[in-house]
């Protein structure tokens, strides 16, 4: 049994197999809205909503999975992006900027706030950082609830503008479905390039041992600020897309459960792996809605599946592989011998 399991893991860990599976999955997801079948709009909504959480998961992955900063208040950046869009593209303040401009403004404001918040807590780690970020997330939600003259309080902001591209108004779930997965593809490419760069290696070094990374010459304060800014920017993007899609936003859309769900999906998918975020979101966000037809038993089935998965695969669906060291026992080449002499 162990031999079969080892063979199976080795097979699926091959890059060519992984790329083929990812291509097939993306092709299936992209072709879903093209077919007519019962409850098509519901399926588009479910998968699209899971895609929105994939975007948010990639933002939190930068904080927790790459840089090793325990963040329990990520919903705050999500809310900042959403309310920025509501302020700049709705009748609320009678401002109607184009979606394609507002989305970057929303991400930028969230990044600035993320940077400012991270400055006082640069020396905090682990649970202490988690408590501070949790408090920050709740403070943002309470401000949105109580600043009624600005945010309209618990009544929220409605009638948000819909994006327009080449004369096409994004007023259908299918439009946002493709928009969300286009953003996912771009983020996958960007994060893949970053994680293999000097910045990515610095983040991974900080995640493994911050003290050793600092003694190795890595400016941990600089890379922490960069990680907070990038993750918050991605969260702001997700918030703006959510606001435009839903057409209205309320403070309860950004409660603590949102932050917990995002954290759970990146742990479930494999901490430190951007491709695992996709599987984690599908399992944690889409699966409960898919099982909705089973009524009272769906959460029981979902819970059992999570327990079984954590027993068989506690490191997540796609854990990040540790860096491979070169074989020090190999004999030096002739050129290396000449250098040694």
Largest beta-sheet details: 2 strands, antiparallel
Number of domains: 1
Number of helices: 15
Q: What low-confidence regions span 5 or more consecutive residues with pLDDT below 50?
A: 335-341
Alpha-beta classification: mainly alpha
Strand tally is 6
Globally, the shape reads globular
Strand content: under 5%
Cross-sheet strand order for the largest sheet: 1-2
Helical content stands at 55-70%
Q: What is the chain-wise order of helices and strands?
A: HHHHEEHHHEEEHHHHEHHHH
In whole angstroms, how far apart are the ends? 51 Å
Radius of gyration: 22 Å
Rounded average pLDDT: 84
Structure description:
By secondary structure, this protein is mainly alpha-helical. The chain has one domain. The chain has 15 helices and 6 strands. It has helices at residues 2-12, 15-31, 40-66, 75-88, 99-118, 126-146, 148-151, 173-195, 198-208, 210-215, 220-246, 256-269, 274-290, 298-312, 334-340; strands at 89-90, 95-96, 157-158, 164-165, 168-169, 248-249. The strands form 3 sheets. Strands 1-2 form a two-stranded antiparallel sheet. A two-stranded antiparallel sheet has the order 3-6. Strand 1 (89-90) and strand 2 (95-96) form a beta hairpin. Helix 3 runs antiparallel to helix 11. The longest helix has 27 residues, at 40-66. It is globular, with a radius of gyration of 22 Å. The relative contact order is 0.15. Residues 335-341 have low confidence and may be disordered.
């Amino acid at each position: 049994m162990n031999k079969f399991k080892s063979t199976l893991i080795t097979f699926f860990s091959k890059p060519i197999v992984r790329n083929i599976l990812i291509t097939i999955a993306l092709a299936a997801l992209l072709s879903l809205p093209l077919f007519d079948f019962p409850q098509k709009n519901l399926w588009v909504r479910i998968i699209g909503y899971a895609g929105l959480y994939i975007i948010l998961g990639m933002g939190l992955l930068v904080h927790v999975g790459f840089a090793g900063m325990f963040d329990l208040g990520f919903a705050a950046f999500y809310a900042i992006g959403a309310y920025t869009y509501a302020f700049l593209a709705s009748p609320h303040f009678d401002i109607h900027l184009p979606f394609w401009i507002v989305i970057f403004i929303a991400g930028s404001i969230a990044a600035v706030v993320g940077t400012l918040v991270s400055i006082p807590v640069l020396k905090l780690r682990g649970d202490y950082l988690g408590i501070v970020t949790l408090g920050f997330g709740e403070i943002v939600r309470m401000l949105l609830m109580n600043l009624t003259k600005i945010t309209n309080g618990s009544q929220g902001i409605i009638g948000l503008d819909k994006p327009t591209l080449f004369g096409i108004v994004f007023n259908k779930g299918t439009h946002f479905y493709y928009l969300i997965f286009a953003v996912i593809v771009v983020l996958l490419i960007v994060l893949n390039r970053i994680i293999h760069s000097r910045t990515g290696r610095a983040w991974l070094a900080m995640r493994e041992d911050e003290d050793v990374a600092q003694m190795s010459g890595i400016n941990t304060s600089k890379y922490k600020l960069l990680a907070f800014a990038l993750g918050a920017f991605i969260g702001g993007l997700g918030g703006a897309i959510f606001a435009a899609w839903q057409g209205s936003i309320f403070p309860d859309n950004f409660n603590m459960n949102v932050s917990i769900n995002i954290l759970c999906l990146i742990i479930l998918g494999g901490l430190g792996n951007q491709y695992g975020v996709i599987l984690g979101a599908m399992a944690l966000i889409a699966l409960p809605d898919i099982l909705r037809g089973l009524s009272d038993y769906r959460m029981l089935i979902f819970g059992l599946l999570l327990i079984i998965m954590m027993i068989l695969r506690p490191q997540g669906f796609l854990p990040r592989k540790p860096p491979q060291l070169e074989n020090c026992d190999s004999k030096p080449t002739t050129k290396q011998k000449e250098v040694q002499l």
